[in-house]
Amino acid sequence: MAYTRRNFIKAAAATAAGVFSAPYVVTKSRAEGDGSGKPMKIIHFVSDGTSPSMVATADLFSRLTRGRRLCWLEMSKAPGANTGMMDMASLSSSVTDSSAASSSWGSGSRIANGAVNCLPDGTLLKPIYEVLGELNWKRGLVTTTEITHATPAGFGSASKSRGDTKEIARYYKKLNIDVLLGGGQNIYDDKLRKEYTDTGYSIIQTAEEMKNASNDKKLLGIFSGGHLPMTIDWLNDQKLQKTVPTLAQMTDKALKMLGESDHFILQVEGGRVDHACHSSDAPGAVYDHLAMDDAVQVALDYQKSHPETLIVVTADHGTGGISLNGAGGGYNDTSKQVIRMRNAKGSFERLVSSIRKCKNAVELQNYIKELYSVNIGADKANLLLLASEHLNSVAYDEGKGFSCQLGQVLANHFAINWSGGNHTGDYVALVAKGPGSERFAGLIRNTDVFRNYVDFAGSDFRNKEWEGDLIKLSYDLGQEHWLDTPIA
Ligand SMILES: [Zn+2]
Predict the structure, then answer these.
(1) pTM metric for this prediction
(2) Is residue 317 located within the same domain as residue 331?
């Protein structure tokens, strides 16, 4: 499907129709809460790889194509909402990876990049879903990545390495997490699936099955071999639309399953923004961020009838150093360029290998015109052909990949440019709405999230924190470089 504004509005309307078919009902006791000023329900959103600049870019695109701001920014203006920024440094670096980031929320301890709730000496920490599970809170994980990926893993497991996907899957099962929705069919082999069904889980693999699945039985939904497709590819592929649910639909299902219990915590991750940003794919990143924003809207609608719910929307780190650039005289062309992204026919993930097959500048120019409705010109086409052959000959070493070079060429037409392909050390934006939201105002530390959430559940549990010398730690971990900055 060619991507047009009309199509997007149509797709959004169809999603909304599916999502809001069964409205939630307010009851008196819920509206009153438990009287403590603390939330009884927590919905924690993560837009993976989203710096404040990524938010500004997606917000402009939303205003241009949907005629409205991101709802999670609108949410900040509501009564009872608080905004802040969060320092996401890990134990081993000022620039975190997703597992250390989610683990800081999930254990209250900073850990080294690459591990999941595990200290450098191998001590496994107690993840927040274990702490809250013991207090009879229901728990759910929803993501567009593989369900065992770093961000969900940080709430529901502990492991020496984020790569131990089967171990992470078994940890979820051990904790009896009520609902798990995302990708990862390839991780769940027959043996693992049997272990899940033997302990009472239903396993589903399509959007249709999700719609029909019981809300009263533990559920594992895995809708793709690996990660779920990027939203921009989903919008351009009717077959995917029939089989793979949106993040908003998965969030709605999780709330139907958890939402009537006295206490629950749900983590929802828009995980593929990060992947698009790693490859400097501006349209890919923006559409996945909008998909997460649609999921936030589902939570806000739920909260209307369940005011005892706290919603927190944030990110784990920036990725790619995206920037919204001034274009044209007086910078007046920025919006004109940003709106061009609505013509993109797919993600870099899907298109780059075929783009690299172009044999000469004319062929490449024509193909990019077909895919993005922009004419990059002969000079830039030649530059890309050169880049394809000599990926090491770039000014900044962290932008070596062909995708990064393609992203920079397209930046001349989209007014969006990049610093490279890595995570960045930005403080991330945070919006919280509902009881307890005042604890998220101002500049907070990532580990505060765990302390707040367990306190809301009436517990003072704390995990051990690493107290060793951080520079020595970096050396002990066998890293090539000494820490460049002290850890805040
Ligand atoms: Zn990443």
Answers:
(1) 0.91
(2) no
Instruction: Count H helices and E strands in the chain, helices first.
Output: 22, 14
How many whole angstroms from 91 Cα to the centroid of ligand 1?
17
299 and 164 co-located in one domain: yes
- Same domain (yes/no): 100, 144: yes
SS3 percent helix, strand, coil of the chain, rounded to 5, is: 45, 15, 40
| One domain for residues 198 and 263 | yes
Q: Determine the longest span between alpha carbons in the chain, in angstroms.
A: 69
Sign for the CA dihedral angle at 128, 133, 139, 145 comes to: positive
The total number of structural domains in the chain stands at: 2
- Do 306 and 440 lie in one domain? The reply is yes
**Based on the domain organization, do 149 and 261 belong to the same domain?**
yes
pLDDT single digits (tens) 277-315: 999 999 999 999 999 999 999 999 999 999 999 999 999
List the domain range (segments joined by +) for residue 383: 325-417
Residue 185 falls within a domain, yes or no?
A: yes
What CATH number should be reported for the domain holding residue 207? 3.40.720.10
- What is the CA(187)–ligand 1 centre distance, in A? 20
H or E stretch at 1: none
Q: Which helix (H) or strand (E) holds 324?
A: strand 323-324
**E strand map for 207-279:** 219-222, 264-270
- Residues lying with their CB under 5 A of ligand 1, a single-atom ion: 274
User: What's the pLDDT score for residue 401?
Assistant: 86
CA 322 – ligand 1 centroid, Å: 13
Active site residues: 98
Residues 329 and 282 in one domain: no
Distance of CA 94 from the midpoint of ligand 1 (Å): 15
State the number of CA atoms in the 13 A half-sphere of 241 facing the CB: 15
Both 398 and 454 in one domain: the answer is no
User: Could you tell me the distance, in angstroms and rounded to a whole number, from the CA of residue 356 to the centre of ligand 1?
Assistant: 23
The 10 Å Cβ neighbour count of residue 166 is 15
* Beta-carbon count within 10 A of 143 CB: 29
